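hey can u check if this looks right to u? its 330 residues, i copy pasted from the old doc so theres a chance i mangled smth
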Amino acid sequence: MKNIFRLNIVMAAIAALVMVGCNTNDDPITPNDEKPSAPSGTMVQSVSGTSIRYKWTPPTNTSNVTGYVLMAIEKVAGGTGAKREVIVSGSSSSTGVVGGLTEGKIYECMVHALNDTTRSDASNAIDWAPAQRGTGTFKLYSSLNATEGSGLGIFRTGGPAVLKIANGGDWDVCFDDKFNPTDPRIGSPGQSAYVDNAYKFPNGQSSKVVYTGRTYTGINSLDEIYESEALNTNPVPTTELMYQLSSIGGSTGWGYALAWKDESTSPVSYWYGKLIVKRIGGTFIQGTGSGANISVDISYQNVKDLPYAIKQRIENHIRFETSRREAQAR
């Protein structure tokens, strides 16, 4: 009887120890599912026609951040379409790429911070459409050159290409040293010395109507340009522009967004892109005489009317310039 009593005491003690050891309030391995703070300052750029690179600022407190979720949600009429998510590990990570997108589609881009599987609120959202990158660097040569072209056709069947004056009607950008050989310019063909007062090339082709939007300074490549908002929210100039390369200061490259007004469609449509002029060895212009040239990199849309570069209802903004051109051509 005494042995049974002693056994019961021992069993009770063991049970008490087990209960203390299983106290979930003191369990050091319980997951911390605290909701992290949201990242901020999200910006984007196009890597290709099917991928977008994100850049963001991590939250101030990253002690409970294990990574980030990059989201790209297709925007469709009346709702949302396909969704792509990419997880980037590391509390201090600040860039990542979402691929597998569809060219010609607009996506709502945002970032969530992660604490294991717990997500923060979303960062600021940006509407963006992925855009093509030009293959390699294009060289535009002096008007004195008999074998190389001075214009760049971007939005054309077969893709971008350097073109001679015989195809001036397809130029979206040109290198112009005809106006002032000692101070060349780059910009809209319609404002170059290649065309007459009726905006026509010597062979009778009409120049395209190409407008320029925001400019970019202090950059060496397209990879250094991130946008914090869809470019359709920004005003565009009311005229076509040429830029004197000698007036562009700094020691790095320079570029601008451009829009071609396609008047062959009804209603009129617009095609958008970006161009970077590369500064090599401290100067934009390489070579001299007929060998003078500039090097440019481009990013462009293969689909019209997307908010990749300065898309806005720009008909109102360019009405004055269109009227001026028509009056001058008469």
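The CA atoms of residues 152 and 265 lie 22 Å apart.
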